[in-house]
DNA sequence: TATTGTTATACTCTATAACTATA
DNA sequence: TATAGTTATAGAGTATAACAATA
């Protein structure tokens, strides 16, 4: 890319990294208030949208390795948020479901996500927020980032 | 924040996290080709801009703890990129400097950063890139993010 | 023989606290 | 007594590979 009009190099990519990190850490603070890590939150989201999915598929969706989701689900199951049900058709794998408590928490999680969104975009006007959303969506599309994928970036 | 005009919740904050993570990991790939971690790169940048600074100050600038910068500098010093010079006025602390090789590598690092910027913004027109830079700068300012600070987010 | 989920292990990254040497 | 830097240790997070159960 060419330098900016004044000859000073642009740092937009770097700024994007910094703000992305800020957004992720602020969101992690909010999920922590719900007793969840960002990985917990992503897992609840995926199971909520795709009830009955297997651990193998969940691992793929999260961009994680199967052994990684074991302690993740152990923790959520212990807290009564998720259930592992043996598949009757293939007894090797589980069908994952949210419990009632899990669904309720997922609802609160969505509220929290919207609050987070509002706080993050507060410095912008509604028009600017719209424009930013458009530009980021275009950038994501150009780089093949799946907007729906919930690959948690961790902290 | 209010939902988007069509009632579907916006995911701009999440998109920002994802793209920030993408930007950081792509940059890490490029620095790795130079034999540097992102932390190495940030350290070279800070010393290059502030020759003679102490490890304590460097740690503050990097947002790290003093014990963290020890192995970082050990590695850079072993590779002949950085020098630790005992301060003559206060023999407790070091004055950090880049060697000639360190300065040369910092130059290549700047080239790499600009290439990275170009690749990342490639899906946008120049006008859109300008607009994105403006919006992100406004967002950073609103949240008190120091644009010059080089707090590396890690991977 | 292949696949799902599990366990055991190890590796990376980082922070905390104790230590030394100077001041 | 306070500060710069160092070392030792421990913790979080994650991946790799071997394993048991089922297909």
From TrEMBL, chains A, B:
Residues 12-141 form the HTH marR-type domain. It holds the Pfam family MarR_2. It comes from the Bacteria. SMART domains: HTH_MARR. SUPFAM superfamilies: Winged helix' DNA-binding domain. This is MarR family transcriptional regulator. The lineage of its organism: Bacteria, Bacillati, Actinomycetota, Actinomycetes, Micrococcales.
């Amino acid at each position: 890319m060419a330098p900016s009009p004044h000859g000073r190099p642009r740092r937009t990519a770097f700024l994007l990294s910094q703000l992305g990190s800020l957004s992720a850490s602020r969101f992690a603070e909010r999920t922590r208030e719900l007793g969840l890590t960002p990985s917990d939150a992503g897992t609840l989201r995926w199971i909520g949208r795709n009830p009955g999915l297997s651990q193998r598929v969940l691992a793929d969706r999260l961009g994680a390795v199967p052994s990684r989701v074991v302690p993740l689900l152990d923790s959520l199951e212990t807290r009564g948020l998720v259930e592992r049900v043996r598949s009757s058709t293939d007894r090797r794998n589980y069908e994952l479901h949210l419990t009632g408590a899990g669904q309720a928490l997922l609802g609160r999680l969505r509220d929290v996500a919207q609050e987070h969104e509002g706080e993050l975009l507060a410095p912008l006007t509604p028009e600017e927020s719209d424009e930013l959303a458009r530009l980021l969506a275009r950038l994501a599309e150009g780089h093949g980032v799946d907007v729906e994928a919930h690959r948690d970036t961790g902290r």
